Each structure stands twice: as C-alpha cells, then as structure tokens.
Amino acid sequence: MGLTQFNGSSVAYSDSAGTVLFTGLGITSFDFQGGDRAEIDVTTSQSASRISRAGFRSPRRLSLGVLFEKPSIVELDAEMASCSPGDLTVSASVDCAAASQVLSLGAYLMSYSVAAQMDGVWELSLEFLVDETPEEEA
C-alpha cells in the first residue's frame, strides 16, 4: 500500500553523539531530492551519432518544514558547526494507520531559516544533505 496521507507525519533528529535535538516533530512540508546525474558526451569524430554516458549522481537532499517549537536556535547553530552527520528519521501514515518509518539516514544539517508573520505561526525550514560516505571511509 502506498503512502496516502501526510497527516500524522513526523521527523526525529539526533546529533552524531546521539543527543536528540527533536523527536515526533510534526511536518508541514517535505521534499526529498534523490539527486540527478550529469550527462557526459563521449562522441568522437568516428561516431555515427551523439553518444552519452551517465555521470556521477549528485548528492541527495531533504528539505523539511516544521512549526518552530524545538530545537532552539542555539541547538541548530551547534549542529551547523558539527563535522559529523546526525541521524534523521521521517515517519508517515499509511491508510490512516499509525505512522511508520519512511526513511532513516545519516544527514548533515546544511541550513535552516525561521520565518513568522502577523497572525501566523513561526515556521522552521531545515535543509539536510544526505551522508553518502562509503562504509570503509566512515
């Protein structure tokens, strides 16, 4: 069964030391960019037509929107200074059932922004870079 509801979705994140920055935080927006690949032109004067090969995949990114409840700016700033990826988990509902884990991965917090307006809520936007470090290098 596919994911049919956004309601009930949540996110959790802990830093590389295992300290939980937030858990069970409701999501207002979600965008996972799986990366794309460059097209490499390998055509030569001997070719009958253009020939292309796929290049390396670009880094995967995950953008999340949440209500600004937690973590604090101080915690976000500390995570931005970290040299190690944290653990990011996103859960979502399937057919009105309890939320189940959609993805769990190592990720670096790359940017954040906080926005608010009159008669509105404080919103936090988080941008993560998925850790693509091969196991032998970790």
Quick take:
This protein has 138 residues and is mostly beta strands. It has one helix and eight strands; from the N terminus they run E-E-E-E-E-H-E-E-E.
Notes on the protein architecture:
This protein is mainly beta. The longest helix has 8 residues, at 73-80. It is elongated and about 65 Å long. It has 1 helix and 8 strands. It is 6% helix and 49% strand.
Task: Produce the secondary structure layout.
Blueprint: E1 10-14, E2 20-33, E3 37-41, E4 52-57, E5 61-67, H1 73-80, E6 86-92, E7 100-115, E8 123-130
Antiparallel strand pairs: 1-2, 1-6, 2-5, 3-4, 5-8, 6-7, 7-8
Care to count the β-strands?
A: 8
What is the number of helical segments per DSSP (H or I, 4+ residues)? Answer: 1
State the major sheet.
Answer: 6 strands, antiparallel, barrel
What does the overall shape look like?
Answer: elongated
Please state how the strands of the largest beta sheet are arranged side by side. 1-2-5-8-7-6
Average pLDDT level: 85
Indicate the structural class: mainly beta
Write the element-wise H/E pattern from the N-terminal end onward.
Answer: EEEEEHEEE
Query: Measured on Cα atoms, how large is the radius of gyration?
Result: 19 Å
Low-confidence stretches: none
